[in-house]
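WARN  no MSA supplied for this record, continuing single-sequence
INFO  ligand: 4-O-methyl-alpha-D-glucopyranuronic acid
INFO  echoing inputs
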Amino acid sequence: MNDIQSHEARYDCWLQHRDTYTGSLPEETLKKIFLMPAEGPLTHAAGELRRGLEKMFGISAKCGAKCGAGGGITLEIGAGGIPPEAFIIRAEDRGVIITGADEAGCLYGVYRFLALLAQGKICRGMEITDAPTTPIRALNHWDNLDGTIERGYAGASLFFKDNRVEYDPVRIQDYARLLASVGINRLSINNVNVRGPAKRLITEEYLPELAKLAAIFRPFGIRLLLSVNFSSPCSLGACASADPLDLAVAEWWKRRADMVYGAIPDLAGFLVKADSEGESGPFQYGRTHADGANMLAEAVAPHNGIVFWRCFVYNSTQDWRDTGVDRARAAYDHFMPLDGAFADNVILQIKHGPFDFQVREPVSPLFGALQKTRHLMELQITQEYTGHQIDLCYLPSMWEWVMNFDTRHGRNTAIKDLLGRSDGPGIGGLAGVGNVGLDRCWTGHPLAQANLYGYGRLAWQPSLSAQAIAEEWSALTFTNAQAAGTVEKLLLDSYRIYEKYTAPFGVCFMVTPGLHYGPDVEGYEFSRWGTYHRADREAIGIDRTETGTGYTGQYPPENAALFSDTSACPENLLLFFHRLRYDFKMRNGRTLLQNIYDTHFEGYDEARKMRDLWLSLEGRVCQTVFEIVKERLERQLENARQWRDVINTSFYRRTGIDDAQGRKIYR
Ligand code: GCV
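INFO  complex generated
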């Protein structure tokens, strides 16, 4: 059986049309939608249900008030005892009831019902109750006002063009639907590097347009956030400084917040990148990050606003000669001493690892350690270091590993257990850096849609496995069962393969500087970015234990001991934590060098197998999608070849040691 979807249908992502309705509920049940109450808060959810039934299954349903006990689908609000945004779906003999704790809960219930229906998982007698684990499930765009996207690999911005807010309202509504269908409820639309005209987004020049955008997202339960520049009081011409302890500055921000909230009353808040990679911040004035964040927090507090304050603060003008500074330490060193010093409406936003979204990094030691400060975890969905949406790299595999990381700050303190916990070390949510642009399939690589979907599903339920998400997404996206099964396998293999042919064993930053695609072993070695591996003829890596930079000491004793011991440290992080000789014996009995060779030969071979597996789907997926993915897998293979040969040759040249299996290494 052919998958008859056209490429255009990729536009619908996981809300795909299916040719036939094959569910076990009688089609008649799906033709009537009842609302309780009949008017008001549920009309949007009902409209989405009607639209979904029509678009996905070709079923035309009518909405109306309920009379008698007739079948159909009833939408209602207000089951007691379920938390905000939660829902219950019950399929009874007389019909289906979707009960939301509130308006958003009902909407989420509708989307889940449609997804389950599409997977043939709705049957009579079933009852599902579900609630998001975390209250904040944010997506951050890094879109610039000129229409470009920092680290964007899927076309231009959905929101901006030529320094104007410019968008297709239908497309924005479709985007809102996609995001809401996986539970995303906060959205920042402009880059955290707030430069040039973006600084004026918080002025009358742009606010009316932003208010219109906010209105499109609102019915989907999505509240906008704005990235702001810390030095705005100066750059917008009002103050001589941006010193957070200067009363005139604080007053300026209060008035500015009043103006912004006048236009967008439910704005979720401001997102701030300060003292980072050239952005201004409190350090410029000799103040702390608590001083800076709290001053802004006071300005937005009357409007119930939140300040999302990023912890990506490090010295980006480092001297590579100076071995005394370790960038990995930076976030903890800056923010841990401030635990408890932040206002209640400040949420620290912490990248999941101590560096910068590398293919493999340990989880930041701030998680589990912060006890008195609200915080959330930032993940990167856009594939900056993970293949630019050319290479297939299914990120939920990485995130599952992050979610399962045990911080060992007491019992039940794995990241997935901390997410949504409201006491001390609880993590209040996730923020994902988005991977979407104007590309017709949204994500450039059609299979990269799985990363957006997976992010939303994990933000909702952090204990979901990468496998469960891949299965769900593939089944929803590819209606041909064989295609879905093959795609699921491709997804699940892809991160491991990508890791194999790129920087070895957690060493980080062997990428082309600036671009971050393709290998460059020495590219960041003598730079100012604190990104060194210090490989020489005998050894590679940085000692981050107590005998080195002391980074391991930022973890509680059990984890510090685990990471410090080369025989216990997870092997995929060995070169993150240790400086090792090339003849270091790894657990398989082979040397580190031989393992570097092996993983790179294998990575390439496995990338070729992935390409071949995709080729086996010709005729089972629509030809256009087939060709696009094929072309990307070919480019991936070339990238893997380049990585393999550059890495292997570079280590061969350093060591003069041949591959034990005599495979080709270029001299
Ligand atoms: C938005 C990395 C990226 C930058 C990004 C920065 C950040 O350094 O390369 O493009 O800037 O992270 O997260 O602020």
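The chain has a mean pLDDT of 96.
INFO  checksum written, moving to next record
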